[in-house]
Amino acid sequence: MRKLTWLAPTLYITFLLMPIYWLLNMSFKTTNEILGTFTLWPQEFTFDNYIKIFTDPTWYNGYFNSITYVLINTVISVSVALPAAYAFSRYRFLGDKHLFFWLLTNRMAPPAVFALPFFQLYSAVNLFDTPIAVALAHCLFNIPLAVWILEGFMSGVPRELDETAYVDGYSFPRFFVRVFLPTIAAGIGVAAFFCFMFSWVELLLAKTLTSVAAKPIAATMTRTASTSGYELGLLAAAGTLTIVPGAFVIYFVRNYIAKGFALGRV
Amino acid sequence: MARKTTNQKAWFLVVPVVVLVAFNAVIPLMTVVNYSVQETFGDNVFFWEGVKWYEQVLHSARFHASLLRQITFTGIILAIEIPLGVAIALTMPKKGFWVSVCLVLMALPLLIPWNVVGAMWNIYALPELGLLGRIINGLGINYNFTQQPIAAWFTTIMMDVWHWTSLVVLLAYAGLRSIPDAYYQAAKIDGASGWAVFRHIQLPKMKRVLTIAILLRFMDSFMIYTEPFVLTGGGPGNSTTFLSIDLVKVALGQFDLGPAAAMSLIYFLIVLLTSWVFYTLMMKNEEQ
């Protein structure tokens, strides 16, 4: 009985990997093979779908656009969340609890509610169809999340650290950057991971706020599926490539994920 | 942890966050409120309508149907994902090489763009071309999610379980790792059964992370849009038209701004109220 505990995770991981395998399988097939016969692995193995994506600017620019706004968003979210999380974890001030809850409510706002007003707002400030617009819009749910995670990590650091540093003559900015940030490096990593993740996977707002110049890769895929017939192979290849950045990021933070969940409040 | 000093200057540290979030939250929200009480025939001409749209939405059979579908969907996925996630976390390896392998593979679905998740499941479940569709039809069950509402629901739920159970696993696993070994040794000396260990040691320790897991899964599943939209387009018929899909249909499809705005606010309020009740309970728990 005890020996069988590996069975559940193995079955679960198999369940997780099957659709991904199928996507990968499709991406190496020709359109003829996909539509003609049912095969468990590619019979006429082809890289054509990938070559098309890497040579066609409308495709590869989609990746650049997505990665650009995701990185801008992660940097903005984490850097403004750091001082705020410090304030919430160390001080009591007028309206602090209400403010914290108000921040969290923005994590609860359905993006569908904001799609149209966002379009009008960002058109009005002349940012429509730029990566900055998407990066700023994603702050709506990423900043509250980053504050929440970082506050959890910072509350775990004893206040004696702050007090000793001030006694030693550190000014606040110097203490914050030189002493405090290195102490919660793991927390910053986890917060950045979550910001990257939620900005990378979101599509509704990203699609609403862009048209041509800053179109994210996910939106390029939607267009392919609807206009040029149903090019499943190409769609599968593009889909497979969107998994790659995520897989990289997970690999780098794999040791922090479990730890981060435990220390932080998320 | 508990000692906090009162310091009003702390507001300066919070200002950047408030400015950025307010820009994104307050202005659009005011726009929505504005639309929800007015009628427009285009050309930026608006007429005051009061609460007409709210009454219309609250009495419309269409809204009730979407809301009911939404509640059913959220209820089902919570009932599957939470116990399944806990069960997987309990059986996961405790240390060594396989922990990393499990964590990396399990986190994979969380980082796939939502429309790719929808597209992937579409390809996977197609009755003729998809592996899942072939397997189910091969078992002698007539399955076609583009035509049968039940099959569409089954596929959508399976997709969500595939997509999000790992989040529950990661949270529950983190909760389990925070239990000191001494607890288990004490239980062993007392001769406690596996169930007793779970009920009196593991479950209480996971309480906080599980509350967070339920809250996150509730909010996100209640706001779900992209995955079912790409997978089924809300169909067949309206059978998988959840609240967000319906809202986008009204707002951007029919361009009925007034009703769409009123619906948005009612929708937001439902999520907010439920989450607030949950948040309050959670905070009470933590103080104890």
Give the largest interface: A-B, 97 and 96 residues
* CATH-level-2 architecture of chain B: Orthogonal Bundle
**Level-1 CATH class name of chain B:** Mainly Alpha
Please, what is the CATH homologous superfamily of chain B? MetI-like
Number of strands of chain B: 3
Q: The CATH topology of the largest domain in chain A, please?
A: MetI-like fold
Helix residue percentage of chain B: over 70%
The major β-sheet of chain B equals: 2 strands, antiparallel
Give structural notes.
- The complex is a heterodimer of chains A (266) and B (288).
- Chain A has 266 residues and is mainly alpha-helical.
- Chain A has 2 domains: 1-46, no CATH class; 57-263, MetI-like (MetI-like fold, Orthogonal Bundle), CATH 1.10.3720.10.
- In chain A, 77% of the residues lie in helices and 1% in strands.
- Chain A is built from 13 helices and 1 strand; from the N terminus they run ααααβααααααααα.
- The model of chain A has no long low-confidence stretch (mean pLDDT 84).
- Chain B is 73% helix and 3% strand.
- Chain B is built from 12 helices and 3 strands.
- Chain B has helices at residues 11-36, 52-59, 61-91, 97-107, 114-125, 131-138, 149-177, 181-189, 194-222, 226-231, 243-253, 257-287; strands spanning 5-6, 38-40, 46-48.
- A two-stranded antiparallel sheet of chain B has the order 2-3.
- In chain B, α2 (52-59) crosses α12.
- Chain B starts with a strand and ends with a helix.
- The mean pLDDT of chain B is 85.
- Classes of the chains: A mainly alpha (266), B mainly alpha (288).
- At the A-B interface, α1, α4, β1, α5 and α6 of A face β1, α1, α3, α4 and α5 of B.
A few lines on this structure:
Chain A is mainly alpha-helical and 266 residues long.
